[in-house]
Amino acid sequence: MNTYMPKKRSFIALSVLAGMSLTSMHALAQEAEAQAAEEEKEKVVESILVTGRNVSYANSAISTEMKKQQTPMTSALALIDNLPGVLVTEGDPFGSDEWSTTISIRGFQVNLDSQQIGMTVDGIANGNSNYGGGTKASRYIDTENLRSTEVSQGTADISSRSNEALGGTMDFTTIMPALDEQLTVSTTFAEYNASKIYVRYDTGEIAPDTFAWLSLSTQQNDDYMDGSITNTRDHLEGKIISTVGEVDLTGYVSYDDAQEYTYQRVYGLAQYAQNPDWDGLTESWSGIPYQDQVYRGGWVTERENFFTYLKADFSVGSIDFSTNVYYHENEGTGKWNPYYIADVTDDGAGNANSELNTSSTVNGGDTLGLIYFVNSAGEALSPVDGCVSSISSPYGGGGAEVDPNCYEQGAIAVSSNRHTHYNKKRYGINGDFVWHTTIADMDNVVRGGFWYEDYQRDEYRDWHKTIDASTSSRYENTPYWVQYDREFPVETLMYYVENELDAGFAKLRLGAKQFNVDVSKEDQFTPENNLNISSDSDVLISAGFVAPLPVDGLELFGGYAENFAAVKDAVLERDDTDISTVEPETADNIDFGLRYSTLGFNASLTYYTIEFENRITFVSNEDVNGIDFLESAAGGYINDGGIESDGIEASVDYNITDSLGIYVSYTKNDSTYTDEGVSGNTVIGSPEDMAVVSFDYTKGDFYAGFSTKYVGERFLDQANTQETDSYIVSDLYLGKTAYDIGGGIDSVELSFTVNNVFDEDYLGSIAANAGWIGAPRIASFNVRVAM
Question: Which residues contact 669 (CB under 8 A, 6 or more apart)?
């Protein structure tokens, strides 16, 4: 494959811009100058160092070897798992189930309960990472179009576009077009009926100084539990770059259509020990609604994402400018099978339940009760007095009201299909400048910029009657009840300014940023439930330094940043939340470290300390067994204490020989709650120790590698009464590329990958009081042809 390395100075600068955070403009300018110097020597070398850039905070980026450790079907998130401080766990081997995906960095989490780590795509905000209406970077980017991912573990770049970035950011960047026209075809086959077909066409120069690529892919895989369902994903993606006069333009578009079946959480260590290979979902429809609530085919989410942006880079005198506009639309539906009909109309005693009549729909209102069985006339029935239920699962079993054996002959079971519909439309604009000047003969750089985004998330939930609960999960098209219909307008404005002075002995930076965020809820059924909250930040200070030391290649760095996460629209969903008492979350991050870089050897060591305050959590006033389909448990969101974290992150990347390299990373993390009652307890899902050792070998056209990651014990609950075992997962890859095949074929690459080589049993993703079973061993084979 030809990597795009343009010969014109403007395109060289543009390729560097794509490789780093697009808004980290001072560092980009330095890289552009370095690239120009290399061009003059007619030697351009592209490299990605896991030790990160020479900035005043901890950061690291994925390497080519880390990409090879995963299959082309794997989600883009999984590639960062070996970076220091980072833990990515996915319930599905290919990341096709976002429900079971979690990310943990320094005690901060992205999971079902929390979104505390920022994500950007080519430097542009991803639009929140929550499961209900959010989008992770893996839905924007096909893994085979991923150029790099840079992770700032705590004190992120001041210009980062995210109001979730309490614990750093992850910037996923896409590849640049190739210089020459080229067609790339990639086919992947793996266990569990997994397959992917990927095609990318690089146009070459289609107009003066204009290059583009377009890719299409389709993939599928069955669940690994019993193979009863099939996840699918269709993806289209494209990019174009052009120089018009003195302006460098970049356009990008992505469309993703996914149907993902979710794995169920394992509720506690006892359930996991009972059967570590089963999540409790069933492969067949039993005809008993209470048991069919865990029918695997009923746990499905359908999502479509469309994302596009247009970016312009240009200079006026000594000032460099970068700006872009973007648009994103997310549409999807999450489905479940409640084991009852919600009684939402008072039809009177002795009358048929109108909920069974599919010709009408009730909008809003509360339930009057639950209907489990009816007679042939549609009247609700009660179980026989004194009957004891024999149903023992799931969730510990149910009472006589859900057991068909507790009703007279002729009773008809009824159930529902519950659909939650999400739609989000957002558009935004970013602008940045970099001004190079001098102060007392010292180089000085002033950076500044803004981010504005306007989005509206619509969400409504409707309930459909199962046509015949005794035979299948098929449902009536017309819902009998629309439980709620809400709109959440959110407006965000972020602006920042930073000055960096090169004093010779060190580069010193000082900056400030601020967020203005307005969040509203507009209830389409009950206007009295409308809410509005202003979630503005204080002025957030950022400072740091980078100082070269007497040893060539060694530098000392330190950074401080006040991070912020706005109150999310999900907090406004509950009508019983007193939002006047809810404040935005904040975190103070401090990094100190050393970096060393020389030919064939790169290393970094970072110490960090973080104080996270005003953590927003949902507190329920009552318990509900099993799934709360109606979300009937009373409670609300409150600021409940915080988290204190400190630790070290270390990595070494060393070329032992010209062919053999070793990469090692180690993380020691201590993240504890400051909440009353659990103060000092370890944060849920946060391991104290993590370590990675990876050997990578390349000789000629052959390559191979073996990587092992150790993850220490973690807790399932805030009380720290349930501790998971530590685990070790290893990955193996090998491949060979043949060039100059003839017949119009430039190269053929064959690769073989085995993830979780030793088929380790472990609990992977963790949410409060539960976890998901880790993915088993899986082997895959890929053929990649470039023409």
Answer: 85, 106, 107, 645, 646, 647, 686, 687, 688, 689, 690
Give the relative orientation of helices 25-40 and 9-19 as an angle to the nearest 10 degrees: 130
On whether the CB atoms of residues 450 and 507 are closer than 8 A, the answer is no
End-to-end Cα separation, the chain, in angstroms: 8
What are the backbone dihedrals phi and psi of residue 503, each rounded to the nearest 5 degrees, phi first? -90, 10
Mean pLDDT value across the chain: 90
The residue among 26, 84, 21 whose CA lies nearest residue 693 is 84
The CA distance from 536 to 637, in Å, is 18
For residue 313, the model assigns a pLDDT of 97
Other residues' Cβ atoms within 10 Å of the Cβ of residue 749: 19
Phi, psi of 610 (to 5 degrees): -135, 140
Highest mean pLDDT among 37-41, 270-274, 687-691: 687-691
Q: For residue 34, what pLDDT is reported? A: 40
CA separation for the pair 563, 565 (Å, rounded): 7
DSSP 593-628: EEEEEETTEEEEEEEEEEEEES-EEEEESS--SS--
- Measure Cα distances from 486 to 367, 421, 520, 580 in Å: 18, 11, 10, 20
Return the closest-CA partner of residue 307 out of 456, 121, 444. Answer: 121
264 secondary structure, DSSP code: P
Report the distance separating Cα 384 and Cα 510, nearest Å.
74
- At 620 the pLDDT is 59
Q: Phi/psi of residue 545, each to 5°?
A: -150, 155
User: Does the model's pTM come out above 0.85?
Assistant: yes
Residue 74 has pLDDT above 90, yes or no: yes
- The token pair that represents 62 in the structure block: 């994925």
Q: What is the pLDDT of residues 132-158, one digit of tens each?
A: 778 899 999 999 999 999 999 877 788
Q: Using CA atoms, how far apart are residues 373 and 404, in angstroms rounded to an integer? A: 8
Residue 131 has pLDDT above 90, yes or no: no
| Confidence (pLDDT) at 626 | 73
The confidence score (pLDDT) of residue 6 equals 37
DSSP for 698-732 reads EETTEEEEEEEEEE---BSSTT---BPPPEEEEEE
